[in-house]
Design a protein that fits this description.
single chain; alpha+beta; Nucleoside Triphosphate Pyrophosphohydrolase; nine-stranded mixed β-sheet; 5 helices; 36% strand; globular
Length: 167
């Protein structure tokens, strides 16, 4: 069954569609059976931090899949620890991302999912020092500031659009 939307925020090269960012209660989102993942827009000073995903070969924001029994907040805090080495990240809940995903590694079917979107501000540190803290180097190969890679390196289109939701 193919689902289409007349209006949306962004569509990437794979046909994935960021439909909306919805204002909702964080606890209610955690109870939503369509909640599958959480992402974090990370700021250092006035810039955004991105990580190079080895499997997708592009820069992305940080986050991942919800594990069994995890709330949205528990997921994003765990992911920030794994991908950035940051404990107690002080994540600010922004809203629920409504996304139409095309068949991929996780499913052979087109599907509608929700994801928790968070914002995190980190102190001004060097990218090299930050990378030394990364626990999941199997996934995150390097870190970079958005201003240094914009228009020079491949960046996940939906993730790049999500940057604007955390000022």
């Amino acid at each position: 069954m193919e689902i289409s939307y007349d209006s949306y925020i962004c569509k990437d090269d794979n046909g994935n569609i960021l439909i909306s960012i919805e204002s909702t209660d964080e606890a209610l989102l955690s109870e939503n059976p369509l909640l599958t993942h959480c992402l974090a827009v990370v700021k250092i000073g006035n810039d955004y931090l991105l990580g190079w995903n080895k499997w997708r070969n592009k820069y992305e924001i940080f986050g991942g899949c919800i594990e069994n029994g995890e709330s949205a907040r528990e997921c994003i805090l765990r992911e920030c620890y794994e991908e950035l080495g940051v404990k107690d990240a002080g994540a600010v809940f922004i809203g629920a991302m409504k996304i139409l995903l095309q068949p991929d590694y996780f499913s052979t079917k087109e599907r509608l999912e929700y994801g928790g979107l968070y914002g995190i501000s980190l102190p001004d540190v060097s990218i090299e020092d930050m990378y030394r803290q990364v626990k999941d180097k199997d996934e995150i190969a390097k870190l970079a500031l958005y201003s240094q890679i914009r228009n020079r390196e491949p960046i996940a289109l939906i993730d790049e659009k999500l940057l604007s939701y955390f000022k």
